[in-house]
Queue: 4 jobs
Job 1
Amino acid sequence: MEQIFDRIYIDSDICNGKPIIRGKRITVQTIMEFLSAGESAEEILKQYPSLEPEDITACMRYATELLNHSFVIKQSVA
């Protein structure tokens, strides 16, 4: 398991190698999807009692860090 960010790890044997929180089977993507759907951090913590508030903050910081990189989105040809 490789720590790639504060509390965020990648393990090819867990969740198909997606970034996860502290070795749990909870992906950063899952937490970000909850947040983008309007769930509060408190609601997420109730649904995932093994998480800590710092885990949610780490997910947001990780997503923000990813946006520091340049991406090119290609349009599909219809």
Job 2
Amino acid sequence: MALSKVEKRIRIKRRVRGKISGSSELPRLSVYKSNKEIYAQLIDDNSGKTLASASSREKGVEANGTKTEVSAAVGKAIAAKAIAAGIENIVFDRNGFVYHGRIKALADGAREGGLKF
């Protein structure tokens, strides 16, 4: 029986998470997208703590324009929070989503904001 779209994403997510993990020096930027919103977190996997987070639901992020433009704004917001916390280098975790569209826009926004990955 064929896997559903969500089951495929979770299988890909498990495979990728076996290869990457975040630390306090090199945190993991985890991205989740729903149909309406997009969320990003900087995670230290060694201690199990979230160092910074940003989403399209926050007041600081402008929710004008298309979902792709909002994703780029979330990327810039997470980059600003990371720079304020003293983090420049990260590991990008696309969370099983295809690196295209909104996920790519968020990554590009984070790069524009000053993050290196």
Job 3
Amino acid sequence: MIVAFSVTPIGAGEDVGEEVAEAVRVVRASGLPNRTDAMFTSVEGEWDEVMAVVREAVAAVQARAGRVSLVLKADLRAGVTDGLTTKVERVERLLAED
């Protein structure tokens, strides 16, 4: 499964980079395949391990701000591994054919 999520501290002001970096540190320390872009961090693995990472990332931000917002989107597809890479590679191949 792939989960794309964003966790945002509420009431921390406009610059939330430090709080968001704490969440990303948790994801990267997990050892699971992951990517971070301007809007979301995506992480890939089995349900329990991915959801544990999301929970820890939220807790890391919540430790710095009493209130957080979590947006989460999940792609649940049995038998797929390395989806973070292969899904993007397929689109890039199709674009290269243009």
Job 4
Amino acid sequence: MAYALYLAITVPLTVLVARTLSRHGKTFLEDVFQDEQALAHSVNQLLVVGFYLVSLGFVTLFLTSDDIVLDARDVFEMLSVKVGTVALVLGVMHVGNVLVFNGIRRKHLNHATARPVPVPPPHPGYPAPAPHPAP
């Protein structure tokens, strides 16, 4: 009974967090990769799949318990520890995803704003300098 309650709480919680990350992450990535919508969709899907694998793996591994459950109070105490731990792990994973999104955004913005150094016009009578290769 306690296992069924644990799964009935943690699996929907995981799905809710993953859908929220997917929906808002997709909007964020589409803004970052304005000219590459397919890339934004792919990155979003990969992050969501990774989130599901890690979080549902944790939920499954955390399913077992050595606690002796004698009454309803023991069930609620065990569930509170387990569900609370899962919620904390999901929160940490959410922060991790936000940091990944921010890193992708920062890298993309830095790349987009990097401009080559303008070459001054040549002096009359001198040949134009050869262009330098990009770093």
